[in-house]
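Structure in, sequence out. Go:
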């Protein structure tokens, strides 16, 4: 009986990782710069673009490289959806061919706009910046590494904070890393190192594919930091988590990383399930005070019924 009970409690606990989130729907968004942006999207919005070749005196069709294509849907669903392309890029990009000089264009960094701004205080950009500067990737800045390399300027949309689906967040976050660590041409842009085979490097992990769907790269590779939701201090490989019991234990490190926000939110809502989740959804250790008491009560009841049954049977026998 108890195992059945546990399974059902567990599955509802998993089922409610759906915090109701207010800022989800983006399909209805209409940008004040929609028309302006079409000046760029007419070429950068799909794989074919057209321009007038003045020497030939006719329209020419050409292919846009995939790296230069921006999906309208993704842009208007992103955190910076309300921007005009020319808020971040020079107005001169409206002319084609683009001037070669534009390649030297300097880009703003996140902190230039978000640093010290009350409105974004909850993200703690300053702490993120400090973590990033201590991380393994920071030394690659000279070769062009920036926050934008993980936060695609045209598509990034916070996931973990607003998520109603843990698996989706895990996939989204891991894809940020795999964009380089499983794509050698992107990796090569930044280092002369040989290709690192991620699957082979993690073959010590049993059920690898299942683990990669249940935890994020940053769980093992980033230093836990309680001042931010997503730790940005990626350590050198020597410091990565390898011991199973760092996660598979009562005080799993996942409670201060992957499950951090979820459990906090649900605590705020005063959700009973939230407490169950906080207390018992520790992988590999389904202990819970309420369940303990509950199971004791059930145990007591069962004993009582058996005794009662025995009592009546004995009496019946005596009466015969
Ligand atoms: C007529 C088609 C066309 C239009 C319109 C156009 N682009 Fe481009 N753009 C291209 C092509 C082709 C490339 C790749 C070749 C190159 O770099 O010139 C490119 C490259 C770029 C690059 C990358 C430059 C680099 O560093 O390599 C940026 C940034 C860019 N465009 C921004 C814009 C913006 C912003 C707009 C709108 C204001 C815009 N483009 C409008 C065709 C276009
Ligand atoms: C929030 C600022 C921001 C906005 C808004 C923005 N871009 Fe960009 N864009 C950047 C940055 C930063 C880069 C350089 C990315 C990198 O270094 O990886 C970039 C790079 C590009 C590139 C070169 C390809 C690439 O991904 O490296 C193109 C093309 C481009 N932008 C077009 C556009 C178009 C078209 C729009 C409008 C739909 C737009 N951008 C809106 C910041 C922005
Ligand atoms: C040019 C200034 C500028 C730059 C550079 C910039 N942002 Fe923003 N960002 C903004 C503004 C303004 C908003 C608010 C947009 C809105 O409300 O529509 C915003 C919104 C956001 C949001 C959503 C905030 C919320 O409350 O939902 C996130 C997350 C974010 N930015 C992250 C970043 C990251 C990460 C970077 C760097 C990779 C970055 N931004 C770079 C100006 C900027
Ligand atoms: C190595 C990759 C990487 C780099 C570099 C990086 N980030 Fe992130 N960042 C992530 C990942 C992964 C997430 C989690 C995305 C999610 O689920 O929203 C994240 C999330 C965030 C968030 C949302 C946190 C929240 O509380 O919701 C902010 C803000 C942010 N990053 C800012 C920055 C800034 C600023 C920089 C540069 C100083 C930066 N990031 C550099 C990988 C990176
Ligand atoms: C834009 C490309 C890019 C992205 C995105 C990226 N990395 Fe990296 N990463 C690199 C490169 C290049 C190196 C090699 C640095 C060097 O030359 O030693 C590296 C190194 C590392 C190392 C250190 C390996 C060692 O030898 O100690 C770890 C760990 C790592 N990355 C994890 C991550 C994680 C986790 C994420 C996602 C949150 C991520 N990376 C995202 C490009 C990237
Ligand atoms: C369960 C913990 C765990 C997870 C999850 C994990 N890693 Fe690792 N990773 C490690 C450990 C431990 C090492 C060190 C292996 C060694 O010393 O050979 C490592 C090594 C690495 C290296 C360095 C390889 C080398 O030899 O230079 C990179 C890069 C890396 N991981 C990236 C990632 C990425 C990207 C993800 C997500 C898809 C990820 N890791 C997920 C624990 C993990
Ligand atoms: C970064 C945290 C982390 C580390 C480190 C870790 N695991 Fe896991 N493991 C998980 C999570 C999360 C799950 C999925 C649990 C769930 O869905 O309830 C899991 C699932 C499993 C499963 C069940 C797999 C399945 O297919 O259902 C086994 C077996 C397992 N881990 C063994 C190990 C062993 C052995 C190690 C050490 C070599 C290890 N784990 C290290 C987080 C971790």
């Amino acid at each position: 009986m108890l195992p059945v009970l546990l399974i059902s409690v567990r599955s509802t606990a998993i089922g409610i990782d759906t915090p109701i989130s207010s800022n989800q729907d983006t399909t209805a968004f209409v940008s004040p710069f929609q028309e302006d942006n079409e000046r760029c999207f007419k070429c950068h919005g799909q794989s074919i673009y057209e321009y007038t070749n003045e020497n030939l005196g006719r329209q020419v069709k050409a292919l846009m490289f995939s790296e230069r294509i921006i999906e309208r849907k993704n842009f208007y669903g992103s955190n910076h959806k309300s921007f005009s392309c020319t808020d971040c890029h020079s107005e001169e990009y409206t002319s084609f061919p683009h001037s070669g000089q534009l390649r030297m264009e300097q880009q703003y960094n996140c902190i230039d706009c978000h640093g010290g701004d009350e409105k974004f205080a909850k993200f703690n950009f300053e702490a993120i910046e400090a973590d990033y500067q201590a991380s393994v990737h920071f030394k690659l800045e000279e070769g062009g590494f920036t926050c934008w390399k993980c936060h695609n300027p045209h598509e990034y949309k916070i996931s973990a904070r607003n998520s109603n689906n843990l698996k989706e967040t895990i996939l989204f976050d891991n894809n940020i890393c795999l964009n380089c660590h499983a794509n050698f041409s992107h990796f090569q842009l930044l280092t002369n190192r040989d290709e690192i085979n991620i699957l082979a490097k993690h073959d010590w992990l049993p059920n690898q594919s299942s683990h990669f769907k249940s935890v994020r790269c940053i769980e093992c590779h980033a230093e836990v930091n309680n001042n931010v939701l997503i730790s940005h201090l990626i350590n050198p490989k020597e410091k990565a988590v390898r011991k199973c019991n760092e996660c598979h234990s009562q005080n799993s490190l996942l409670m201060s990383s992957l499950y951090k926000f979820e459990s906090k939110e649900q605590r705020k809502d005063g959700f009973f399930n939230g407490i169950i989740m906080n207390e018992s959804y520790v992988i590999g250790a389904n202990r819970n005070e309420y369940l303990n008491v509950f199971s004791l009560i059930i145990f007591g009841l069962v004993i009582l019924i058996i005794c009662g049954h025995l009592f009546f049977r004995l009496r019946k026998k005596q009466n015969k």
